[in-house]
Every structure is written in C-alpha cells, then in structure tokens.
Amino acid sequence: MKSLNEKCNQITQYINELLHDQQGVGVSVAIVKDAETVYSKGFGNARIGSAERPIDGDTWMSIQSVSKNFMALSIMQLVEKNVIALDDAVVTYLPYFRTKNKEQSDAITIRHVMSHTAGFPSEVGIANMIAPNVKEIFSDTPTEFQEALDHYQLTEEEITSINTREDITKWFKKVELEYPPGEGWNYCTDAYVILADLFEKVTGSKWEASLTGDILTPLGMERTTSDSHVVEKNQNSARYYVGEDKMETPFPINPISAPIGYLYSTANDLANYLTIHLNKDSDVLRSDLIEEMQKPLHLVSEEWRAPGCDVRSYGLAWFTDTYRGYKIVEHGGGQMGVRSLMTIAPELNLGVVVLLNFDGTIHHDICDRVMDVFIDS
Known about the structure:
Elements (H helix, E strand, L loop, with lengths): L3 H15 L8 E7 L2 E8 L1 E3 L5 E2 L6 E2 L4 H14 L21 H4 L4 H5 L11 H4 L4 H4 L6 H8 L4 H5 L4 H7 L19 H13 L3 H10 L11 H6 L7 E2 L4 E2 L9 H4 L2 E2 L1 H13 L7 H8 L3 E2 L13 E2 L4 E5 L2 E10 L2 E8 L4 E7 L5 H14 L2
Antiparallel strand pairs: 1-2, 1-14, 3-4, 5-8, 6-7, 9-10, 10-11, 11-12, 12-13, 13-14
C-alpha cells in the first residue's frame, strides 16, 4: 500500500506535467482525507507579467458557481429552523414572483428552484449581465456588448434598472417556462438570486451577513467572502487569463448576483467546507439535511453528462455521478479565465478542491487523477 507521501508526490508530479505549457498561470489544490486536509499546494502563479506572484492554498480566487452551494446551505438552515419548507411555493414568501404563466409559476417550489427543475430556460442571462463591468467583459469588438444583449433579448435600459435582488425576481415575469415545474431540468444560474431574495425577505437580513455569521465564521473560513474590493486589494489574490496568449480578463464582480457565482474563497477554506459534507457532522447543519442536499433529484440534460453517462443527476446545489464505480458529489464553476471544482467521494472519505485562474478542463483532469491515486492505493 502506498504511503500518503507517495500518493501526494504522484499528484504533484502529474500537476507539474499538466502545467508545463501553461505560460505561468496557476492552480491551487487541496485534498481532504478522513476529515483532515492532507494536501495543500499551489502551482504556477496567481498573477503573471510584471505583477507575478506565486499561487498557494490560501490564494483568494473566484469560485463562480460553487457559490450556489453556500446559498443552498443557507436555505437549508432555514429549513432546519422550521422557518420554511422545501416544498413551499416561492410565492408564499415572494408574492410578486411570477413568470409569463402565473398559474405555472405559482406551483414553483423552493426545491424546484434549488434543483434547477422549476422550468426556467437555461439561457436567461439577466443575473450576469448586470455586472458593473459588463461592458468591459464584452469589449473584444465594438458590437460585442450589443450582441450579448441581443442574445439574451435584453436592453441596456433593462439591465441598468436592476438595483436589487427583488428586481431580479420581478424581472422573471417575462420568462416563459420550458416545461411544467418538476418535470424537467435546466441549469438556470439566475434562479439562485431568487433564493437570496427569498432568504432576505424571510429573515429580514442580508444574505451575506448570515453567510458570514452562520456558515463561514463557525467553519473557520476566514478567507471566503462576497466582498470583491477586499479580495482585489489583497496581495495574495488571483487575476484571470484567457487564450493562448494568456490575456488578463476583467475581474469578476457582481454583488447583487453573489449567490450565483460571485463569492471568493481559497482551496484551503473549501477543503474545510468539504469536511462537513463528507462527515455529515456539523453544528452548521443537521446531518439529515446535509444528506438531503446530496440526494439526486433529476437527471441532468445530455450536454451536462460525459459521453455514455446516464446517471449524472442534480440534487440541491450538488451534481451526483459515479467515477470508477464510486459515487461522487460535486459542483464546479466557470467564467472567463476562472475554473473551480469541489468534489467528494463519500465511500473513500475523500474530498478534492481545484481552482484555476485560466480556461480549460485541467481542473477535472486533476480531480480524476487524485481519485485514481487514492482508489489504486
């Protein structure tokens, strides 16, 4: 049987080989085994060029859609307190919520929204298009911003009129459902803003305050935040690069849409976070509710599956799948120059976090390699 050091050395060698041609950009990796972080290492750089600095396990990075898991956990805390129930209709708490067909949208439950089974189309766009630097993001050509608006059937006046999460919820009145609630699956990233709006209306407080007080602080996650200004100013924070020439891309900022993908964290903090989902033993959330989050509810659409895969499903802010016969529970995220992935294999008592500051699929390759090393030991 290989020692832990041998396994870690194998993983380090593999990642070094993968990054050989990546022109200095970086990867931050953490591994949890049996409730302990056994591996934390950075490869390459958090920033390149004149501001070059190495990446490590504490480098602050955008985690994109991994943020949804934190929003879901906050909702589950309300369930634990018997403040709400997963099968309550959203309109019970947000009476102004509706889609084009009010009768259909009145049937949408909190569980539907969390599991992406509400019937919303996947190409909605409103939550990302309200980013304060959206014009900078879509600036490769003089017409790119307008093309993005046209793609999502939005106007500039429309996106500048969105000032709150309630505004996002109310905007959904123009959305036509693609299937009756609960009868299909579409990954609608924008829908998680509705969850934050609901959370804030029920509790009377900002979601970010609860996130810090009820999740991050109890878990000792001191380098996880929604505050982009704090992150951007911090010396040990990443910048993001795209294309073969590794051009720096705009920093991901979108405070209203923080629950869909605008939290910032580190590999070490996320490794800490994975321990509660692996062990299902935490004061943060009751064990049966942690299990509830990980239960597969609906098969995902074909474009979200690997070739030949017929088991990949979605629960409550977790994808579920198998790898070499082992169940895996995971969530990833991505935007220009950002890739994130957190994965647990409960039967192996193993968790993996991989964060990149460049495009590609290397985060999945690294996770698979970590799984291989521990399975084959």
